[in-house]
Protein backbone atom coordinates (compact mmCIF):
# COMPACT_ATOMS: atom_id res chain seq x y z
CA UNK A 1 0.00 0.00 0.00
CA UNK A 2 1.36 3.40 -1.05
CA UNK A 3 1.90 5.86 1.81
CA UNK A 4 1.21 9.52 1.00
CA UNK A 5 3.97 10.85 3.28
CA UNK A 6 6.83 9.04 1.51
CA UNK A 7 9.12 10.61 -1.07
CA UNK A 8 8.23 7.91 -3.62
CA UNK A 9 4.50 8.60 -3.30
CA UNK A 10 4.99 12.37 -3.51
CA UNK A 11 7.22 12.01 -6.55
CA UNK A 12 4.75 9.63 -8.21
CA UNK A 13 1.70 11.78 -7.48
CA UNK A 14 3.48 14.90 -8.72
CA UNK A 15 4.38 13.25 -12.04
CA UNK A 16 0.86 11.84 -12.44
CA UNK A 17 -0.76 15.23 -11.75
CA UNK A 18 1.62 17.01 -14.10
CA UNK A 19 1.02 14.42 -16.84
CA UNK A 20 -2.72 14.55 -16.29
CA UNK A 21 -2.74 18.35 -16.43
CA UNK A 22 -0.58 18.31 -19.56
CA UNK A 23 -2.79 15.77 -21.33
CA UNK A 24 -6.03 17.54 -20.28
CA UNK A 25 -4.75 20.94 -21.39
CA UNK A 26 -3.34 19.53 -24.64
CA UNK A 27 -6.58 17.69 -25.37
CA UNK A 28 -8.55 20.85 -24.63
CA UNK A 29 -6.49 22.92 -27.05
CA UNK A 30 -6.50 20.16 -29.69
CA UNK A 31 -10.27 19.80 -29.46
CA UNK A 32 -10.73 23.56 -29.64
CA UNK A 33 -8.40 23.73 -32.63
CA UNK A 34 -10.16 20.85 -34.40
CA UNK A 35 -13.55 22.32 -33.60
CA UNK A 36 -12.48 25.76 -34.82
CA UNK A 37 -10.84 24.36 -37.96
CA UNK A 38 -13.79 22.14 -38.74
CA UNK A 39 -16.17 25.01 -38.18
CA UNK A 40 -14.16 27.29 -40.41
CA UNK A 41 -13.81 24.68 -43.16
CA UNK A 42 -17.50 23.91 -42.87
CA UNK A 43 -18.37 27.57 -43.33
CA UNK A 44 -16.00 27.92 -46.29
CA UNK A 45 -17.45 24.82 -47.91
CA UNK A 46 -20.96 26.05 -47.17
CA UNK A 47 -20.22 29.47 -48.75
CA UNK A 48 -18.73 27.84 -51.87
CA UNK A 49 -21.72 25.55 -52.15
CA UNK A 50 -24.17 28.46 -51.80
CA UNK A 51 -22.33 30.65 -54.30
CA UNK A 52 -22.05 27.83 -56.81
CA UNK A 53 -25.79 27.27 -56.52
CA UNK A 54 -26.45 31.02 -56.85
CA UNK A 55 -24.27 31.19 -59.99
CA UNK A 56 -25.99 28.10 -61.41
CA UNK A 57 -29.54 29.34 -60.86
CA UNK A 58 -28.90 33.02 -61.69
CA UNK A 59 -30.07 32.75 -65.39
CA UNK A 60 -33.25 30.93 -64.46
CA UNK A 61 -33.86 33.39 -61.62
CA UNK A 62 -33.51 36.39 -64.01
CA UNK A 63 -35.74 34.72 -66.60
CA UNK A 64 -38.30 33.84 -63.96
CA UNK A 65 -38.01 30.19 -64.79
CA UNK A 66 -39.19 29.11 -61.38
CA UNK A 67 -39.94 25.54 -62.39
CA UNK A 68 -36.34 25.04 -63.38
CA UNK A 69 -35.26 26.72 -60.15
CA UNK A 70 -37.42 24.38 -58.14
CA UNK A 71 -35.99 21.37 -59.93
CA UNK A 72 -32.47 22.58 -59.37
CA UNK A 73 -33.19 23.17 -55.65
CA UNK A 74 -34.71 19.74 -55.21
CA UNK A 75 -31.77 18.16 -56.99
CA UNK A 76 -29.16 19.82 -54.80
CA UNK A 77 -31.08 19.00 -51.61
CA UNK A 78 -31.15 15.26 -52.34
CA UNK A 79 -27.80 14.79 -50.60
CA UNK A 80 -29.05 16.07 -47.25
CA UNK A 81 -32.74 16.28 -46.41
CA UNK A 82 -32.07 18.55 -43.41
CA UNK A 83 -30.75 21.42 -45.60
CA UNK A 84 -33.11 24.04 -47.00
CA UNK A 85 -33.25 26.75 -49.75
CA UNK A 86 -35.59 29.71 -49.79
CA UNK A 87 -35.85 32.16 -52.71
CA UNK A 88 -37.06 35.79 -52.43
CA UNK A 89 -37.80 38.30 -55.19
CA UNK A 90 -36.59 41.85 -55.31
CA UNK A 91 -39.38 42.91 -52.95
CA UNK A 92 -38.34 40.28 -50.42
CA UNK A 93 -41.35 38.13 -51.15
CA UNK A 94 -41.01 34.39 -50.96
CA UNK A 95 -40.82 32.67 -54.32
CA UNK A 96 -40.58 29.12 -52.98
CA UNK A 97 -39.11 27.11 -50.09
CA UNK A 98 -37.51 23.69 -50.23
CA UNK A 99 -36.54 21.91 -47.04
CA UNK A 100 -38.04 20.64 -43.75
CA UNK A 101 -41.39 22.26 -43.07
CA UNK A 102 -40.78 22.68 -39.30
CA UNK A 103 -37.89 25.07 -40.04
CA UNK A 104 -39.80 27.42 -42.39
CA UNK A 105 -41.80 29.06 -39.58
CA UNK A 106 -38.55 29.96 -37.75
CA UNK A 107 -36.93 31.75 -40.75
CA UNK A 108 -38.81 35.05 -40.48
CA UNK A 109 -35.95 36.94 -38.75
CA UNK A 110 -33.52 35.97 -41.49
CA UNK A 111 -35.55 36.96 -44.63
CA UNK A 112 -34.40 40.57 -44.98
CA UNK A 113 -30.67 39.88 -44.57
CA UNK A 114 -28.55 39.48 -47.71
CA UNK A 115 -25.09 40.38 -46.50
CA UNK A 116 -23.06 37.36 -47.64
CA UNK A 117 -22.20 36.58 -43.97
CA UNK A 118 -22.48 33.08 -42.56
CA UNK A 119 -24.52 32.89 -39.38
CA UNK A 120 -24.70 30.09 -36.87
CA UNK A 121 -28.01 29.26 -35.26
CA UNK A 122 -29.95 26.31 -33.90
CA UNK A 123 -33.42 25.03 -34.61
CA UNK A 124 -34.72 22.69 -31.92
CA UNK A 125 -31.13 22.18 -30.67
CA UNK A 126 -29.90 21.31 -34.17
CA UNK A 127 -27.02 23.52 -35.31
CA UNK A 128 -27.31 25.23 -38.69
CA UNK A 129 -25.25 27.49 -40.95
CA UNK A 130 -27.25 30.30 -42.60
CA UNK A 131 -26.29 32.62 -45.45
CA UNK A 132 -28.37 34.98 -47.59
CA UNK A 133 -26.90 35.75 -51.06
CA UNK A 134 -28.28 38.48 -53.35
CA UNK A 135 -28.97 37.64 -57.01
CA UNK A 136 -27.43 40.41 -59.16
CA UNK A 137 -26.33 40.91 -62.73
CA UNK A 138 -22.87 42.28 -62.41
CA UNK A 139 -22.97 44.28 -65.67
CA UNK A 140 -26.30 45.93 -64.97
CA UNK A 141 -25.92 46.09 -61.19
CA UNK A 142 -29.57 45.10 -60.90
CA UNK A 143 -30.93 43.39 -57.73
CA UNK A 144 -33.29 40.58 -58.73
CA UNK A 145 -33.82 38.97 -55.35
CA UNK A 146 -32.01 36.80 -52.75
CA UNK A 147 -31.49 33.19 -51.81
CA UNK A 148 -31.44 32.00 -48.14
CA UNK A 149 -29.38 28.86 -47.73
CA UNK A 150 -29.43 26.69 -44.61
CA UNK A 151 -27.15 23.70 -43.99
CA UNK A 152 -27.37 21.39 -40.99
CA UNK A 153 -24.13 21.28 -38.97
CA UNK A 154 -25.17 18.10 -37.14
CA UNK A 155 -22.89 15.92 -39.24
CA UNK A 156 -19.91 18.11 -38.41
CA UNK A 157 -20.84 18.04 -34.73
CA UNK A 158 -21.03 14.24 -34.87
CA UNK A 159 -17.58 14.15 -36.46
CA UNK A 160 -16.29 16.48 -33.73
CA UNK A 161 -17.86 14.26 -31.03
CA UNK A 162 -16.16 11.25 -32.56
CA UNK A 163 -12.88 13.13 -32.68
CA UNK A 164 -13.39 14.24 -29.06
CA UNK A 165 -14.02 10.64 -27.95
CA UNK A 166 -11.04 9.47 -29.95
CA UNK A 167 -8.82 12.12 -28.38
CA UNK A 168 -10.09 11.24 -24.90
CA UNK A 169 -9.33 7.55 -25.51
CA UNK A 170 -5.90 8.40 -26.87
CA UNK A 171 -5.29 10.73 -23.88
CA UNK A 172 -6.36 8.06 -21.42
CA UNK A 173 -4.08 5.57 -23.14
CA UNK A 174 -1.20 8.01 -23.10
CA UNK A 175 -1.90 8.80 -19.43
CA UNK A 176 -1.82 5.09 -18.59
CA UNK A 177 1.45 4.69 -20.47
CA UNK A 178 2.83 7.75 -18.71
CA UNK A 179 1.74 6.42 -15.31
CA UNK A 180 3.38 3.05 -15.99
CA UNK A 181 6.55 4.74 -17.15
CA UNK A 182 6.46 7.13 -14.20
CA UNK A 183 5.99 4.24 -11.75
CA UNK A 184 8.94 2.39 -13.29
CA UNK A 185 11.12 5.50 -13.30
CA UNK A 186 9.94 6.45 -9.82
CA UNK A 187 10.81 3.00 -8.47
CA UNK A 188 14.17 3.15 -10.16
CA UNK A 189 14.92 6.59 -8.78
CA UNK A 190 13.54 6.13 -5.27
CA UNK A 191 14.78 2.58 -4.64
CA UNK A 192 18.19 3.81 -3.38
CA UNK A 193 16.42 6.31 -1.12
CA UNK A 194 14.22 3.50 0.25
CA UNK A 195 17.31 1.36 0.85
CA UNK A 196 18.94 4.23 2.74
CA UNK A 197 15.75 4.77 4.77
CA UNK A 198 15.48 1.07 5.67
CA UNK A 199 19.16 1.01 6.58
CA UNK A 200 18.76 4.00 8.90
CA UNK A 201 15.76 2.35 10.57
CA UNK A 202 17.71 -0.87 11.17
CA UNK A 203 20.63 1.12 12.59
CA UNK A 204 18.24 3.00 14.89
CA UNK A 205 16.82 -0.35 16.10
CA UNK A 206 20.33 -1.55 17.01
CA UNK A 207 21.16 -3.70 13.95
CA UNK A 208 24.60 -2.14 13.48
CA UNK A 209 25.82 -4.97 11.22
CA UNK A 210 23.33 -4.01 8.47
CA UNK A 211 24.83 -2.87 5.15
CA UNK A 212 23.19 -1.59 1.95
CA UNK A 213 24.22 -2.23 -1.67
CA UNK A 214 23.41 0.41 -4.33
CA UNK A 215 24.78 -0.29 -7.85
CA UNK A 216 23.56 2.82 -9.67
CA UNK A 217 27.06 4.37 -10.05
CA UNK A 218 25.74 7.83 -9.17
CA UNK A 219 25.32 10.02 -6.10
CA UNK A 220 23.16 7.36 -4.43
CA UNK A 221 25.96 4.82 -4.78
CA UNK A 222 28.27 7.28 -3.03
CA UNK A 223 25.71 7.82 -0.27
CA UNK A 224 25.42 4.04 0.15
CA UNK A 225 29.17 3.62 0.55
CA UNK A 226 29.24 6.49 3.06
CA UNK A 227 26.35 4.90 4.93
CA UNK A 228 28.21 1.56 5.14
CA UNK A 229 31.31 3.31 6.46
CA UNK A 230 29.19 5.14 9.04
CA UNK A 231 27.50 1.88 10.10
CA UNK A 232 30.86 0.17 10.42
CA UNK A 233 32.20 2.96 12.63
CA UNK A 234 29.04 2.94 14.75
CA UNK A 235 29.26 -0.85 15.12
CA UNK A 236 32.90 -0.60 16.18
CA UNK A 237 32.09 2.21 18.58
CA UNK A 238 29.10 0.36 20.08
CA UNK A 239 31.26 -2.75 20.53
CA UNK A 240 33.79 -0.68 22.45
CA UNK A 241 31.02 0.97 24.47
CA UNK A 242 29.48 -2.41 25.27
CA UNK A 243 32.86 -3.77 26.37
CA UNK A 244 33.43 -0.67 28.49
CA UNK A 245 29.91 -1.00 29.90
CA UNK A 246 30.54 -4.61 30.87
CA UNK A 247 33.85 -3.69 32.45
CA UNK A 248 32.16 -0.89 34.37
CA UNK A 249 29.43 -3.29 35.47
CA UNK A 250 32.09 -5.69 36.74
CA UNK A 251 33.85 -2.89 38.58
CA UNK A 252 30.57 -1.63 40.05
CA UNK A 253 29.64 -5.17 41.08
CA UNK A 254 33.06 -5.67 42.63
CA UNK A 255 32.93 -2.33 44.43
CA UNK A 256 29.38 -3.01 45.57
CA UNK A 257 30.42 -6.41 46.89
CA UNK A 258 33.36 -4.85 48.71
CA UNK A 259 31.12 -2.12 50.11
CA UNK A 260 28.55 -4.71 51.24
CA UNK A 261 31.26 -6.76 52.89
CA UNK A 262 32.67 -3.66 54.54
CA UNK A 263 29.17 -2.66 55.60
CA UNK A 264 28.55 -6.11 57.06
CA UNK A 265 31.88 -5.98 58.91
CA UNK A 266 31.01 -2.50 60.13
CA UNK A 267 27.59 -3.67 61.29
CA UNK A 268 29.19 -6.64 63.06
CA UNK A 269 31.78 -4.34 64.64
CA UNK A 270 29.05 -1.91 65.72
CA UNK A 271 27.02 -4.76 67.17
CA UNK A 272 30.07 -6.11 68.98
CA UNK A 273 30.78 -2.59 70.24
CA UNK A 274 27.22 -2.24 71.50
CA UNK A 275 27.40 -5.68 73.10
CA UNK A 276 30.74 -4.82 74.68
CA UNK A 277 29.34 -1.52 75.92
CA UNK A 278 26.28 -3.27 77.30
CA UNK A 279 28.51 -5.93 78.84
CA UNK A 280 30.72 -3.31 80.52
CA UNK A 281 27.71 -1.41 81.82
CA UNK A 282 26.13 -4.62 83.06
CA UNK A 283 29.41 -5.70 84.68
CA UNK A 284 29.78 -2.41 86.52
CA UNK A 285 26.16 -2.54 87.55
CA UNK A 286 26.57 -6.11 88.78
CA UNK A 287 29.68 -5.21 90.77
CA UNK A 288 27.90 -2.35 92.44
CA UNK A 289 24.76 -4.38 93.13
CA UNK A 290 26.81 -7.37 94.30
CA UNK A 291 28.73 -5.22 96.77
CA UNK A 292 25.53 -3.65 98.08
CA UNK A 293 23.66 -6.95 98.33
CA UNK A 294 26.64 -8.73 99.95
CA UNK A 295 26.98 -6.02 102.58
CA UNK A 296 23.25 -6.04 103.14
CA UNK A 297 23.22 -9.83 103.53
CA UNK A 298 26.18 -9.71 105.92
CA UNK A 299 24.51 -7.09 108.10
CA UNK A 300 21.29 -9.10 108.28
CA UNK A 301 22.97 -12.44 108.76
CA UNK A 302 24.64 -11.46 112.10
CA UNK A 303 21.46 -10.53 114.02
CA UNK A 304 19.60 -13.36 112.31
CA UNK A 305 22.07 -15.87 113.78
CA UNK A 306 21.37 -14.45 117.23
CA UNK A 307 17.63 -14.66 116.72
CA UNK A 308 17.82 -18.30 115.70
CA UNK A 309 20.06 -19.04 118.71
CA UNK A 310 17.69 -17.49 121.21
CA UNK A 311 14.73 -19.29 119.60
CA UNK A 312 16.53 -22.59 120.10
CA UNK A 313 17.35 -21.75 123.75
CA UNK A 314 13.80 -20.75 124.59
CA UNK A 315 12.46 -23.81 122.80
CA UNK A 316 14.38 -26.24 125.03
CA UNK A 317 13.07 -24.77 128.25
CA UNK A 318 10.50 -26.95 130.00
CA UNK A 319 8.46 -24.08 131.41
CA UNK A 320 7.52 -22.85 127.92
CA UNK A 321 3.81 -23.13 127.26
CA UNK A 322 2.45 -24.75 124.08
CA UNK A 323 1.34 -21.34 122.84
CA UNK A 324 4.87 -19.98 123.24
CA UNK A 325 6.35 -23.01 121.54
CA UNK A 326 3.91 -22.57 118.62
CA UNK A 327 4.89 -18.94 118.20
CA UNK A 328 8.56 -19.81 118.54
CA UNK A 329 8.09 -22.37 115.70
CA UNK A 330 6.62 -19.63 113.48
CA UNK A 331 9.48 -17.30 114.36
CA UNK A 332 12.03 -20.02 113.57
CA UNK A 333 10.32 -20.81 110.26
CA UNK A 334 10.34 -17.18 109.08
CA UNK A 335 13.90 -16.70 110.29
CA UNK A 336 15.04 -19.76 108.32
CA UNK A 337 13.25 -18.34 105.29
CA UNK A 338 15.20 -15.11 105.71
CA UNK A 339 18.39 -17.17 106.07
CA UNK A 340 17.63 -18.98 102.79
CA UNK A 341 17.16 -15.61 101.05
CA UNK A 342 20.45 -14.43 102.51
CA UNK A 343 22.14 -17.60 101.24
CA UNK A 344 20.73 -16.95 97.76
CA UNK A 345 21.92 -13.34 97.88
CA UNK A 346 25.36 -14.55 98.86
CA UNK A 347 25.40 -16.63 95.69
CA UNK A 348 25.46 -13.38 93.67
CA UNK A 349 29.15 -13.20 94.48
CA UNK A 350 30.27 -16.78 93.72
CA UNK A 351 33.47 -18.14 95.09
CA UNK A 352 36.34 -17.23 92.80
CA UNK A 353 38.27 -20.30 93.92
CA UNK A 354 35.60 -22.88 93.00
CA UNK A 355 36.83 -26.08 91.38
CA UNK A 356 37.00 -26.01 87.56
CA UNK A 357 37.72 -28.80 85.12
CA UNK A 358 37.41 -29.65 81.44
CA UNK A 359 33.73 -30.07 80.52
CA UNK A 360 32.22 -31.33 77.27
CA UNK A 361 29.41 -28.88 76.53
CA UNK A 362 27.57 -31.28 74.22
CA UNK A 363 27.63 -33.96 76.93
CA UNK A 364 26.43 -31.51 79.64
CA UNK A 365 23.59 -30.20 77.45
CA UNK A 366 22.57 -33.74 76.37
CA UNK A 367 22.14 -34.78 80.00
CA UNK A 368 20.34 -31.54 80.90
CA UNK A 369 17.84 -31.99 78.05
CA UNK A 370 17.22 -35.61 79.02
CA UNK A 371 16.55 -34.66 82.68
CA UNK A 372 14.24 -31.74 81.87
CA UNK A 373 12.34 -33.65 79.16
CA UNK A 374 11.69 -36.56 81.54
CA UNK A 375 9.67 -34.38 83.92
CA UNK A 376 5.90 -34.95 83.49
CA UNK A 377 5.02 -31.25 83.54
CA UNK A 378 7.24 -30.72 80.45
CA UNK A 379 5.75 -33.46 78.30
CA UNK A 380 3.76 -31.01 76.12
CA UNK A 381 6.85 -29.08 75.00
CA UNK A 382 9.62 -29.94 72.58
CA UNK A 383 13.35 -29.38 73.05
CA UNK A 384 15.34 -29.46 69.79
CA UNK A 385 19.10 -30.08 69.62
CA UNK A 386 21.22 -28.51 66.87
CA UNK A 387 24.88 -29.32 66.06
CA UNK A 388 25.52 -31.45 69.14
CA UNK A 389 27.85 -33.71 67.13
CA UNK A 390 30.74 -31.28 67.46
CA UNK A 391 32.85 -31.90 70.55
CA UNK A 392 33.53 -28.57 72.29
CA UNK A 393 35.42 -28.58 75.59
CA UNK A 394 35.56 -25.70 78.05
CA UNK A 395 37.21 -25.12 81.47
CA UNK A 396 34.53 -24.55 84.14
CA UNK A 397 32.53 -25.63 87.15
CA UNK A 398 30.08 -28.37 86.14
CA UNK A 399 27.53 -27.65 88.91
CA UNK A 400 27.49 -23.88 88.29
CA UNK A 401 27.08 -24.21 84.51
CA UNK A 402 24.36 -26.83 85.00
CA UNK A 403 22.48 -24.31 87.16
CA UNK A 404 22.88 -21.60 84.50
CA UNK A 405 21.53 -23.66 81.56
CA UNK A 406 18.83 -25.30 83.68
CA UNK A 407 17.63 -21.89 84.83
CA UNK A 408 17.49 -20.57 81.24
CA UNK A 409 15.50 -23.59 80.01
CA UNK A 410 13.17 -23.47 83.05
CA UNK A 411 12.50 -19.78 82.39
CA UNK A 412 11.38 -20.64 78.83
CA UNK A 413 9.14 -23.47 80.08
CA UNK A 414 7.52 -21.19 82.68
CA UNK A 415 6.93 -18.59 79.92
CA UNK A 416 5.04 -21.26 77.91
CA UNK A 417 2.80 -21.98 80.89
CA UNK A 418 2.15 -18.33 81.77
CA UNK A 419 1.31 -17.41 78.15
CA UNK A 420 -0.73 -20.61 77.53
CA UNK A 421 1.45 -21.65 74.61
CA UNK A 422 0.55 -25.26 73.80
CA UNK A 423 3.13 -25.85 71.08
CA UNK A 424 6.15 -24.50 72.87
CA UNK A 425 9.51 -25.20 71.22
CA UNK A 426 12.95 -24.70 72.72
CA UNK A 427 15.90 -24.89 70.30
CA UNK A 428 19.39 -25.35 71.77
CA UNK A 429 22.23 -24.83 69.29
CA UNK A 430 25.91 -25.41 70.00
CA UNK A 431 28.51 -23.74 67.80
CA UNK A 432 31.86 -21.97 67.72
CA UNK A 433 32.64 -18.30 67.20
CA UNK A 434 34.17 -17.18 63.90
CA UNK A 435 37.69 -17.14 65.36
CA UNK A 436 37.15 -20.54 67.02
CA UNK A 437 38.09 -19.24 70.47
CA UNK A 438 34.65 -19.29 72.07
CA UNK A 439 31.81 -21.77 72.41
CA UNK A 440 28.33 -20.32 71.82
CA UNK A 441 25.16 -21.89 73.23
CA UNK A 442 21.95 -20.33 71.78
CA UNK A 443 18.74 -21.16 73.67
CA UNK A 444 15.74 -19.93 71.62
CA UNK A 445 12.03 -20.22 72.44
CA UNK A 446 8.66 -18.92 71.26
CA UNK A 447 7.40 -17.97 74.70
CA UNK A 448 6.70 -14.26 74.13
CA UNK A 449 10.13 -12.69 74.69
CA UNK A 450 11.36 -10.10 77.17
CA UNK A 451 9.50 -6.82 77.67
CA UNK A 452 12.50 -4.88 79.03
CA UNK A 453 15.85 -6.27 77.87
CA UNK A 454 17.87 -3.54 79.62
CA UNK A 455 16.70 -4.72 83.08
CA UNK A 456 16.82 -8.47 82.38
CA UNK A 457 19.93 -8.98 84.53
CA UNK A 458 18.96 -6.61 87.38
CA UNK A 459 18.45 -8.38 90.72
CA UNK A 460 14.83 -8.79 91.87
CA UNK A 461 13.48 -7.41 88.56
CA UNK A 462 10.72 -9.59 87.09
CA UNK A 463 7.42 -9.20 85.25
CA UNK A 464 6.32 -12.81 85.81
CA UNK A 465 5.90 -15.17 88.74
CA UNK A 466 8.72 -17.56 87.86
CA UNK A 467 9.77 -20.14 90.45
CA UNK A 468 13.40 -21.11 90.09
CA UNK A 469 14.12 -24.55 91.45
CA UNK A 470 17.68 -23.81 92.50
CA UNK A 471 17.13 -20.15 93.24
CA UNK A 472 19.19 -19.21 90.17
CA UNK A 473 17.99 -16.08 88.41
CA UNK A 474 19.45 -14.31 85.40
CA UNK A 475 21.52 -12.11 87.70
CA UNK A 476 23.22 -15.13 89.23
CA UNK A 477 23.59 -16.73 85.77
CA UNK A 478 25.25 -13.54 84.52
CA UNK A 479 27.70 -13.55 87.44
CA UNK A 480 28.57 -17.23 87.00
CA UNK A 481 29.21 -16.82 83.23
CA UNK A 482 31.18 -13.63 83.86
CA UNK A 483 33.28 -15.48 86.44
CA UNK A 484 33.99 -18.10 83.72
CA UNK A 485 35.38 -15.22 81.55
CA UNK A 486 32.36 -15.47 79.28
CA UNK A 487 29.31 -13.41 78.38
CA UNK A 488 25.56 -13.84 78.24
CA UNK A 489 23.34 -11.88 75.81
CA UNK A 490 19.54 -11.77 75.57
CA UNK A 491 17.53 -10.61 72.55
CA UNK A 492 14.02 -11.11 71.22
CA UNK A 493 13.85 -13.24 68.06
CA UNK A 494 11.57 -13.40 65.03
CA UNK A 495 9.47 -16.30 66.39
CA UNK A 496 7.82 -14.13 69.09
CA UNK A 497 10.22 -15.38 71.69
CA UNK A 498 13.66 -14.80 73.16
CA UNK A 499 17.16 -16.06 72.42
CA UNK A 500 19.69 -16.33 75.26
CA UNK A 501 23.26 -16.65 73.92
CA UNK A 502 25.95 -17.89 76.33
CA UNK A 503 29.60 -17.33 75.30
CA UNK A 504 32.24 -19.46 77.04
CA UNK A 505 35.95 -19.64 76.44
CA UNK A 506 37.10 -22.93 74.89
CA UNK A 507 39.70 -24.78 76.95
CA UNK A 508 43.11 -23.33 76.01
CA UNK A 509 44.81 -26.72 75.53
CA UNK A 510 41.96 -28.03 73.40
CA UNK A 511 41.78 -24.77 71.44
CA UNK A 512 45.49 -24.96 70.52
CA UNK A 513 45.18 -28.59 69.40
CA UNK A 514 42.20 -27.69 67.19
CA UNK A 515 44.05 -24.80 65.56
CA UNK A 516 47.03 -27.04 64.80
CA UNK A 517 44.74 -29.65 63.23
CA UNK A 518 43.10 -27.00 61.05
CA UNK A 519 46.50 -25.64 59.95
CA UNK A 520 47.59 -29.14 58.89
What's the N-to-C terminus distance?
Answer: 81 Å
Largest sheet: 5 strands, antiparallel
Shape estimate? rod-shaped
What is the residue-mean pLDDT, rounded to a whole number? Answer: 78
Describe the structure.
The chain has 520 residues and is an alpha+beta fold. It has 3 domains: 7-177, 2-Layer Sandwich (Beta-Lactamase), CATH 3.30.450.20; 241-349, Orthogonal Bundle (Helix Hairpins), CATH 1.10.287; 353-519, 2-Layer Sandwich (Heat Shock Protein 90). Helices cover 58% and strands 16% of the residues. It has 10 helices and 12 strands. It has helices at residues 7-62, 66-76, 101-104, 154-204, 219-315, 322-346, 361-373, 398-418, 474-483, 508-519; strands at 84-89, 94-98, 119-123, 126-137, 142-152, 357-360, 382-386, 393-396, 425-432, 438-445, 487-492, 498-505. A 5-stranded antiparallel sheet has the order 2-1-5-4-3. The longest helix has 97 residues, at 219-315. Mean pLDDT is 78; it is low at 466-472.
Which features would summarize this protein structure in a list?
single chain, 520 residues, alpha+beta, Beta-Lactamase, Helix Hairpins, Heat Shock Protein 90, 3 domains, 5-stranded antiparallel sheet, 5-stranded mixed sheet, 16% strand
